[in-house]
Structures are given as C-alpha cells and as structure tokens.
Design goal:
The protein has 90 residues and is mostly helical. The protein has a domain of 59 residues. Helix content is 60%, strand content 0%. The chain has three helices and no strands. Helix 2 packs antiparallel against helix 3. It is elongated. The two termini are 41 Å apart. 3% of the residues are buried.
Length: 90
C-alpha cells in the first residue's frame, strides 16, 4: 500500500485539510437561537407565575446572550479593520 503524499512543490508529508463550510463555523445562528430560547423560557415562566431562581436564571441567560452578540460584533469589526489583537477569519 502506498503512503499518501502531497503533490510536488507542497512541503510536508500530507496536504492540509480543506476549510470547513461557512455554515458549520458560523456562530451567529447558534447564539441567536440560544438567546431566543432563554427569553422564550423567561416569558413562559413569567406567564406561568413561577417566582424565584428559575425566572431570574432565564432572564440572566438571555442577557448574557446579548452580551455575547455584542462581543462577537465587536470582534468582527476589529477583524475587518485589521486590528492586531483581533481574531482572523470572522
């Protein structure tokens, strides 16, 4: 059996794997759905008359989802303007 190898001119033993499709690495849909679910749970608990820790936990989860979206937008803006400390490929 022959060993897999790169084509000529490509250093290393194996060629690098291809990039994942954008639909698999995009975080926005996951964060939006998660944040929406937290707020839906909050509304359900509010309408059901549940008091206490669960209601505040769901509200906190939705609020943290908004904080996460703001951080993601901030990082994307920094990446697009070429900031040194920003993550690339967002």
């Amino acid at each position: 059996m022959t060993e897999p190898s790169n084509s000529r001119g490509v250093p290393g033993r194996l060629r690098p794997p291809p990039d994942l499709p954008k639909s698999l690495v995009d975080l926005w849909p996951v964060v939006i759905v998660g944040t929406s679910l937290w707020f839906i749970a909050f509304v359900v608990l509010l309408l059901a008359g549940v008091d206490g820790l669960w209601r505040w936990t769901t509200l906190g989860g939705g609020g943290l989802g908004f904080v996460g979206m703001a951080i993601m937008a901030w990082q994307r803006a920094a990446s697009r303007r070429g900031s040194r400390g920003a993550q690339r490929g967002l």
